[in-house]
Amino acid sequence: MSHPNFKLIEETLQIALNNLVIWTKNNGSKFSEEKTKVVVFSKRKTKFDLNLNFNGVNLNVSNEMKLLGMIMDYRLTWKDHIIYTKAKAMKAMNILKILNNRNNGVNRKVLLRLYKTYVRPIIEYGAPIYNSAPKAILNKLDPIQNTAIRIATGAFKSSRIENLLVDAGEPPLHIRREYLSNNYMSKVLYNVDNPMRDIILSISPLDSEILFQNHPKPLSLWFYENTNNLAEILPDLRLPNNVIPPWTLLHPKFEAISTKGKKHVLPIEFRNNFYEYLSNKRPSNPNICYTDGSKNDDTIGAAFKIADLTLNHKLHKMSSSFTAEAFAMEFCLSHLIKNNVTGNIIIFTDSKSLLAAMQQDVPKNVIIHNIQELSHCILSKGNQITITWIPSHCGIPGNEEVDLAAKSSNFHTISKQLILPDLKNFLKSLTKVKWQSWWDNVPFPNKIKNIKLSVHPWPSSNRTNRLEEKILCRLRIGHTRLTHKYLMERSDPPICDTCMALITVEHLLCDCVKYIRTRQKFNIYDKQINEILGDNPPIIDKVMKFLKEINVYKEI
């Protein structure tokens, strides 16, 4: 509890402890008095002594406590927790050091995966909670990730950290903490029973200016400020509303007009398969429906067609293409129920992922669950539903009509509902934008920035030869043994004997007149450094051969 009157706090807590003792006796439970601690959380420097007892045992007042793996100090600076986390993560780092070998160790892809699996979860446990710690304390965790990436990439310790992160495709920890906090808060918003949800919805921008000018902001306020137009998103968030127990649901039939993929069959053959499928179903006089969803840069739409009626719907701008397909199916089933369409119903869709999701026993997607319940309502009245896959853009008339309707700019209705997976994807994309912005703000001169402007990892960084992976990383960063060993030896920078210029990676690969013919031999002559060391495996192969030819391969 929180109150300015310290005596009142003591009395209230003692009453609560006495009630807890009575409850344990009545219910046969027992708490360890020795493990029970009292911590007074306060920013004041005054030391508070609480005289509390539990089951006749005086409780010790402590400056910190450990709860669910989180060490909370009385001022909530999280300093002790960060120190504990760092020590634990450094022990887990030993697995990377053991598997790493100078020439024949595990490749960087596996090492990075091991870091993400065994080391990073230790760092990120409770990140949304301890993210309110001062930056000076949070920065103590950065060397763990930096060390892991140096081991995986083979870069030198003196390499610039931001260059290492971009080469490995790993965001800084402060951006990772933002992503984890956003992910956690989106789950809170989706759970109507979570008390944090009401706190978030009651947040006002004035709270930031008035209450937290000189103090760390709480997670809810931080989330509110770091997501764009959040106030417009929250009212539209679609929450789960499960009515029918999943084990009692009746499911439709799932079929396909062909078992072959689009790559192996001509469109005319698919059309023939479609008409043959229809002719086989014709005796049952089915109601034919078509559904489709579409997403482009401007709009996201869903449409369905039944008989001569075609209706389309505009969806929330953050919706995914899968959501558009699912909405189209949901709208179609809702229309069938509303208009009391009965008998044998066949619904054609070109989304295999939608069919797979509809066959899940307990789907997490709220739209898929609603589709299952709508299908159950139709099937429980003695009707039949068959969901049939057809390929897209193969000239099937009904499919082409709903495809055009979904892409149209004129919509019959507009739906602003947003589901949790799409909200999480939006927050994830927001984090990627911040990471790219962080890299864009890194000032020039920066050697790897002349080569790699995007933060996304390059597939060409993964080589079959471990030594080549290390060499390629050092070349791109511009920090090699040949060009920078003078820093360790405390000597003068190396000078080219032929050109009398400072030896750099760019000088070696592009400018040095001594190796003009060798560059011509391997067809890397007259190329810029970003072309030579870019995401182009064939050119990278030539670079490795070039380095061996001029006898500097092992000096990198």
Characterise this structure.
- With 556 residues, the protein is an alpha/beta fold.
- The chain folds into 4 domains: 6-62, no CATH class; 79-236, no CATH class; 246-417, Nucleotidyltransferase, domain 5, CATH 3.30.420.10; 480-555, no CATH class.
- Helix content is 48%, strand content 10%.
- It has a 7-stranded mixed beta sheet. Strands 1-4 form a two-stranded parallel sheet. It has a two-stranded antiparallel ribbon with strand order 2-3.
- The protein starts with 5 loop residues before the first helix and ends in a 7-residue tail after the last helix.
- The mean pLDDT is 87.
Write a compact overview of the structure shown:
With 556 residues, the chain is α/β, with parallel strands linked by helices. It has helices at 6-27, 79-92, 94-99, 108-124, 127-130, 135-138, 142-153, 161-168, 173-190, 195-201, 205-210, 219-226, 230-233, 267-281, 321-338, 352-358, 366-379, 397-407, 420-440, 466-477, 481-489, 505-511, 516-521, 529-532, 537-549, and strands at 37-38, 53-54, 57-58, 60-61, 64-67, 70-73, 253-256, 287-295, 300-306, 309-314, 344-349, 384-389, 413-414. The protein is built from 25 helices and 13 strands.
Give the topology.
Blueprint: H1 6-27, E1 37-38, E2 53-54, E3 57-58, E4 60-61, E5 64-67, E6 70-73, H2 79-92, H3 94-99, H4 108-124, H5 127-130, H6 135-138, H7 142-153, H8 161-168, H9 173-190, H10 195-201, H11 205-210, H12 219-226, H13 230-233, E7 253-256, H14 267-281, E8 287-295, E9 300-306, E10 309-314, H15 321-338, E11 344-349, H16 352-358, H17 366-379, E12 384-389, H18 397-407, E13 413-414, H19 420-440, H20 466-477, H21 481-489, H22 505-511, H23 516-521, H24 529-532, H25 537-549
Parallel strand pairs: 1-4, 7-12, 8-11, 10-13, 11-12
Antiparallel strand pairs: 2-3, 5-6, 8-9, 9-10
Helix pairs in contact: 2-4, 4-7, 7-8, 9-10, 9-19, 15-17
